[in-house]
User: Fold this.
Amino acid sequence: MGGISGLHSGSQYASLGTWYLVLTTGSGSFLRYDRPLRDQASPKMGTYLPARPTKFCLACNRIIDAEAVVCTSCGVMQPLPPEMATEKRILPAGLLCFFLGVFGAHRFYVGKIGTGLLQLFTLGGLGIWWLVDMILLVSGEFRDKEGNRITEWT
Assistant:
């Protein structure tokens, strides 16, 4: 029958004097739990730890982490932080893709010159690449040169 055999401290179980839990199984073999019981990175008592920035959810008005993509309470997607936003918009890229997509015009618009040239010379990957890009644009998953999603329509 397995159980907890005890807390051990020493060079074979821990570094810097942290405590580790050693478990035994029914066969008597030892398993070492590699996570320390006390977090080494935690601040000492009486030290100041700055709070993480927060914001309000757009749907339920609960306080969530400022970098949260989805509200943990209601599950509604939150807008991207300004540093991850792009000035490119879905509507111009979508119109360019619809009318001139086989020539890669929408890829030139978002700054992807290399793949724009490939799309130009292959006529949109014989239409397949054009169709995939159109689906990505409409679903909001198309990305610009820096890798930021294009999420705003106008």
